[in-house]
Amino acid sequence: MMERNTFYAFVKRLWRNKLAATGLCIVMLLCAIAAGAPIIAPYNCNAIDVKSILLPPSFQHICGTDELGRDVFSRMVYGSRISLAVGFVAVGISTILGTLIGAIAGYFGKWIDSFLMRCVDTMLCIPDIFLILTVIAFVGENVFNIMVVIGFTSWMGVARLVRAEFLTLKEREFVLAARAAGAGDARIIFIHILPNALGPVFVSAVLGVASAVLVESALSFLGLGVQPPDPSWGNILMQGKDNIETAWWLSVFPGCAILLTVLGYNMLGEGLQDILQPRLKNTR
Amino acid sequence: MLLYCLKRFIGMIPVFFGVTLLSFVIIQLAPGKPTDRLTELNPRITPEARARLEQYYGLDKPIIVQYGRWLSRIVRFDFGVSFSSDARPVIDKIWDRSVPFFDRRLTITFLINTLSLFLILAVAIPIGVLAAYRPYSLTDRITSVAVFIGFAAPKFWVALLLMMVFSVQLGWLPISGIKSLNYAMLTEPGQFFDRIRHLVLPVFVSACGGIAGMSRYMRSSMREALSHDYITTARAKGLSETAVLYRHALRNALLPLVTLLGLSVPGFFAGSVIFETIFGIPGMGQLSYQAIMMRDYPVIMGLLCITALLTMIGNLLADICYAYIDPRIRVK
Amino acid sequence: MFSNIARYVLLFLCIAVIAGKRAESKTHHDPVYGDALVVGTIGEPSVLIPMLATDSASHDVAGLIFSGLIKYDTDLSIIGDLASSWDISPDGLTITFHLRKDAFWEDGTPCTAHDVLYGFKTITDPSTPTAYAEEFKQVLRAEAVDDYTFRVTYRERYAPALTSWGNMAVLPRHVFEGTLLQTSPLVRKPMGNGPFRFKEWIPGDRLVLGASPSYFLGRPYLDAYICRFIPDPATLFLELRSGTIDFMALTPLQYARQTATDFFQKNFNKYTYPSFSYTYLAFNFLHPWFQDKRVRQAIAHAIDKKEIVEGVLLGLGEIATGPYVPHTWPYNPDVPQYTFDQQRAAALLDAAGWHQIDTDGVRIKDGARFEFTILTNMGNSLRMNTATIIQWRLAQIGIKVKIRVIEWSTLINEFIDKKRFEALLLGWSIGVDPDQYDIWHSSKVRNKELNFISYNNPEVDRLLEAGRRTFDIDERKRIYGTFQSILAEDVPYIFLYVPYALPIVHRRFHNIHPSPIGITYNLYRWYVPRDMQRYRLSP
């Protein structure tokens, strides 16, 4: 368990690590924008105005307007919510699932381990986008489905990681001591081992958010992303793609938003890695 | 060594069953029977014909028997007939014997991904080594930023920007497709050159994300290798810095890379879906996107099985390479 | 476009005013042979036999390979193609076609009445998976009187009879006889009798047709017709932009904005003409909410068609008021119109029982919130944007709309055929003959049939039956005029717009004469002056 002063120490180290600090700033900025969207956005992000389609950036519309005359800036501000939600929910699911499976496999070992690891190998053999597309095409494309499906197809890395941690940790003295004291399996797994294995999980979760944001934009590109009228960076970029020469603002702004966000999560992730386990290998 | 290979090979079998089982479950869960589309295509189909079709698909048998029969057809690469109105056998779509070897979907996708793999290695290893050798130096920082951006930019966006610059503005490279319209008129070296020109952008775009990931990996792997005692020993022996770097550190740092490569095969195929759609490349990625959108189950299953098979072969090769380089593995 | 199932796909025709520039350059050249036309499309054909094809991409290409008995002239009248002339018996039941004697299949075999008969037999054979058998089932008897005379007798008077003898039912008997059509490899590399011949098809990449030297109207000047498949619209446009594609269909945005540059002015000609199609919002009559006429009328009042034509089509289209295209003879301009009027819409909904309003502004009736989904097909940004505008407008009167975009064949097979939808945003391509029995008649509601909204109006049924049994144009005009008034009052569809076709062609192609039926009708006469020729494909 993290003590109060170790937590302060952790924040201090985080702040001193430039990579992590920059990443954290970007992520926090993003959260602030998402939370304050109704205040920040100057227009209703779904308000259509066919008299002002594809206007270039101006004082009225600082990021221009899209094919239906909607204000791009407002849409991007609201789009940050989607982007954030997709990242967090998807990664939440994959982290919980991956940790559970990895913990069970690593702790119990034997046939349970081999069975679960074969499952992991199987899932790893199939390109994720293949499964995501198939499932989305069947169950219908909406934000919730997208988040859940991304989550259920990206837990394998975490599972492997947690399993590896458990394999080494379960032989440690404090675990043996707990067992000698008569602690049950569940207690040992969740109270004694898991907290010590969370460092790398945390790092991989942060990196996972970055790739979930990219997957959402790729899905939008393939026409299976967030459905109208909800704005997402991916579907603004889609319109930008069709108007690349005549409406640069439709590709540049959302493109940069995605880039910056993914960059932020990646920097935070790498920075955390440096702090939490200086000698650990990159897990990606 | 042989024993090790055999062991690894046997280890693959459950994974293969896992993949086929998963594919089978997807077909079962999907709405409608696989014969629906075939029979619906023709409203006047007789009940006997319908029954015959259902028998062919084994839909009258218990589910486990269905799986067994399906599996026995899969291992012979018989994935059935596509649901789209051309109704071609799935294997013909993926591996069309009537067209030249280099125009077959599997070849095209395989070729692009192999080339991009080489590109990734050729670029990522030097970047990683350089960055690890002088961590937090200016070079490290610059490459880090470049690598981060390369990873963070959506692929289709990069593809479009490159197209705009190199094909539309500069006119150096073709925009889409795999060969020019006058391909048949070209001399043999001309044909080769023509194909290369068409491959440049797709290969680069497909390598883009990989270079970023791989060079970060290489950097940390190399840093770890450099921190070992034997490096200090080697330096103390008075070996030249190049020798230390390349003969001692790099060799050890490369080891984990091999496994990673094996694992990255499905990632390559996933990328194919995006860039083959945008570059209009007739490969497996384009086919799988179409098949999924059309709910063409036989094609989806065929592609899933073939991709999984290729991934497993990739993993096996990686493991064997690893064992070959690092004798400790074989003993274990 | 939903053209894909019925014979409405038969010809993508177009009518009325032609704007745009003529392709003629100032200096006059004599036509010369050579060069190729490179066409860029998003969709790829699936089969190249007209009777098996269900999508417009397949029909576009198959139409160049197969010629039928008749075709449309530039003024929309019917003229002979394989048939040099025909006689209609006084009772209107029998048509005797006299075939031209200089038509040959690719292998040199003469194209005769037996081939037409064979095609007819195949299309009416229950084991042939075709969507076009219906109109041929009206035939009582078909016979090849001699090698060059083909005679059909109908059960009853059937006004669209003549128009059905396009290229749907002509097949080379000597090649196909004894084989099963749908499994034959010739389905994807056919042997035809038209201006072009199949040469090469690389799936996912391109399809190449070569000029047929034995074409009965003379060998096409162009050596080849090359169709390139580029699934991404942005990539497709960049290909055009870099000059590697000669011919494609533009979207309104591309037409009005992206091609408004010097480069396009200098190198391309753009054309516009009203397409023979319309886009509509259809309601499922099996859904209890939409059975109430007031609800449908309320939605019609809540949609501003002018806004859609302006915002989505950028003015490159016309408002539709019924299932016919303005300026054609069956079109009736004097039908009830639904002006954009949100108060009216709200009042109608109140009257229909939707007067309670939920906290978020959505109307409620009997505990159910007024929420429904509009389904539309993937890859058509016009429809997507139209749906988004409708969604926005309906939200203002308290109706929550979801939009789902589904790939074409999945939409047909999983949703429309199974009647699993609430509302559809789609389009119909229509033929020159006003008969729309298949779309609106209450008997056409079975699986795979085209009245998928289950519309049932005895008066409409009666008019449709009368219309197809009448030959007199004025009488038919009256019948279909009434039919349109009833549809407008009843609102089974909200007819939204008639889009313009917006083709763009490279300037080097000469002999393009825009007409009400478009520009490609005389493709075999297009040529490129020697000094401008670009491709030499065959050695």
Protein described:
The complex is a heterotrimer of chains A (284), B (332) and C (539). With 284 residues, chain A is mainly alpha-helical. Chain A has helices at 4-16, 18-35, 37-40, 72-108, 110-125, 128-139, 143-152, 156-169, 173-180, 185-221, 233-242, 249-276. Chain A has one domain: MetI-like fold, CATH 1.10.3720. In chain A, helix 4 packs parallel to helix 8 (156-169). The two termini of chain A are 26 Å apart. Mean pLDDT of chain A is 86; it is low at 279-284. By secondary structure, chain B is mainly alpha-helical. Chain B folds into 2 domains: 2-94, no CATH class; 101-325, MetI-like (MetI-like fold, Orthogonal Bundle), CATH 1.10.3720. Chain B is 75% helix and 0% strand. Chain B has 15 helices and no strands. Chain B has helices spanning 2-29, 36-40, 47-56, 63-74, 90-94, 105-133, 138-152, 155-169, 188-226, 229-236, 241-263, 265-278, 284-294, 297-325, 327-331. Chain C has helices at 56-65, 113-124, 133-136, 173-176, 233-241, 252-258, 262-267, 293-302, 305-311, 342-351, 381-396, 408-416, 437-440, 458-468, 473-490, and strands at 19-20, 36-41, 70-72, 78-80, 83-88, 94-99, 139-146, 149-154, 196-202, 206-211, 224-229, 247-249, 268-274, 277-283, 317-319, 356-357, 363-365, 368-369, 371-377, 400-406, 423-429, 493-501, 503-506. In chain C, the strands form 5 sheets. In chain C, strands 1, 12, 13, 14, 15, 19, 20, 21, 22 and 23 form a 10-stranded mixed sheet that branches. Chain C has a 4-stranded mixed sheet with strand order 2-11-10-9, sandwiched between helices. Chain C has a 4-stranded antiparallel sheet with strand order 5-6-8-7, covered by helices on one side. At the A-B interface, helix 5, helix 6, helix 10, helix 11 and helix 12 of A face helix 1, helix 7, helix 8, helix 9 and helix 12 of B.
What is the gist of this entry?
The complex is a heterotrimer of chains A (284), B (332) and C (539). By secondary structure, chain B is mostly helical. Chain B has 15 helices and no strands.
